[in-house]
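Hey Z.,

So I finally got round to the flavin mononucleotide thing we talked about over coffee. Here's the setup:
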Amino acid sequence: MIRYNHIKKLLFKIDPERVHQGVERLLPLMAKCPITTNMFAKRSIFSDTVLEQELFGRKFYNPVGLAAGYDKDAKMLSFLPLLGFGFVEVGTVTPLPQKGNPKPRLFRHKQEESLQNAMGFNNSGMEAMAKRLERLTPFSIPIGVNIGKNKLTEPEQAIEDYAQLVQKLEGFADYIVVNISSPNTPGLRDLQNEAFIEELFTRLKKLSHRPILLKVAPDLKAQDAIALCKKAVEEGASGIIATNTSNDYSLVANPKPTGGISGKVLQKKSFALFEELAKELFGKTTLISVGGIDDADEVYKRIRAGASLVQVYTALIYNGPKLVYRLNQGLTKNLKRDGFNSITEAIGADRKQ
Ligand SMILES: Cc1cc2nc3c(=O)[nH]c(=O)nc-3n(C[C@H](O)[C@H](O)[C@H](O)COP(=O)(O)O)c2cc1C
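And the result:
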C-alpha cells in the first residue's frame, strides 16, 4: 500500500505552491471518477452520531473543517467532503480577481511541521466564485465563505468591498467570515479596531441574515482581541474564528522575511488566545478554533475549551488525507471515554466547571 509518508517525500522536493496547484487540478478530476471517490469516502469519512450537531441552521456531521486559504476559489469543493471534513471554508475571496504577492510566497518549515505563507489573497474574484458555488448548491456539507478586501482598495472603502462580497455570495454560504486578520494585505490588520467593526457589522447585518463571523489574528493582545470580539458580537456577529496565521517570527528557526506562520509551532499561541476569548464569550456566541491542530487530543481540548467547531490546514499537508478520519475517530473515543453522549455536551465543558 502506498503511504502518504512516501508520497510526501517526493512532494516535498517540489515547490509548495506548484504542489498545491497540481492538487487543485487533480482533485476535481478525481471527483468525477467513481473508483477514487468510493475509495476516499471509505477511508476518510468517519461517522458517529456522537459527533453530530446543528449549527447555523445546518447539520454538521463532524466538527472538523477545512480552514480558509486551501480552496481559495472553490475549485476543489466537489472532492473535499470525500476527505471526511464536516464543513469547508472557501476563500479568502475578494471582489475583483487579484494575483497576490510575488512568488515564491509559500514556504515549508519541515522540522517544525509548519508553513509560512505570504500569498496575499490570490484568487479569481467573487464573480467566478459565485458561478462555481451556484453550480454546487445545495452542497452536501456546510460551506463557509471567507471574504477579504482587494489589495488596492483604500481602507476608507474597505466596507464597500465587504458589502459587495456579502451581497454577491450570501446565497451560497451557510456562514460568512470577515477576514481582517491576514498579515499579507498591507494595512488589513489595522482594521482590527472597534470603530471599524461597529461600522462593518452594522452595514453587513442590514444586507444579510446569514451568520457572519469574524476571524482574528493570534498576534493581538488578549485584552484587545476580547474587546474587538465582544464588539463584533454586540453588533451582530454570529461567531468568532481564532486564529489566523502569526507574524511572530520567533516561532521558527529560519523565518522568511514576510508572511504568516501556521502549523505545529502556532498551536500554543493560537490556543492561548482562543482560551482567553472563550472565557469571555463562551455561551454568548459560536466559537471556532484553528491553529496548529494536528491530533485528536488537541481537537478535544479545543472543544472542551469552548469551540463548537475546529479547522485544520497545515496538518493536512504534513499528515495527508487520513488526517480528518484520525481526528474524528480519536475525538469520538475521547467523548465516549468521558461519558458524553453528544459533542454538544462536551463543547465548553471546561468553562462550566
Ligand atoms: C497557504 C495558506 C494560505 C492561507 N490563506 C488564508 C486565507 O486566504 N484566508 C484566511 O482567512 N486564512 C488563510 N490561511 C490561514 C488558515 O486558514 C489558518 O487560520 C491558519 O493556517 C492556522 O491553521 P493551521 O495551523 O491549521 O494551518 C492560510 C494559511 C495557509 C497555510
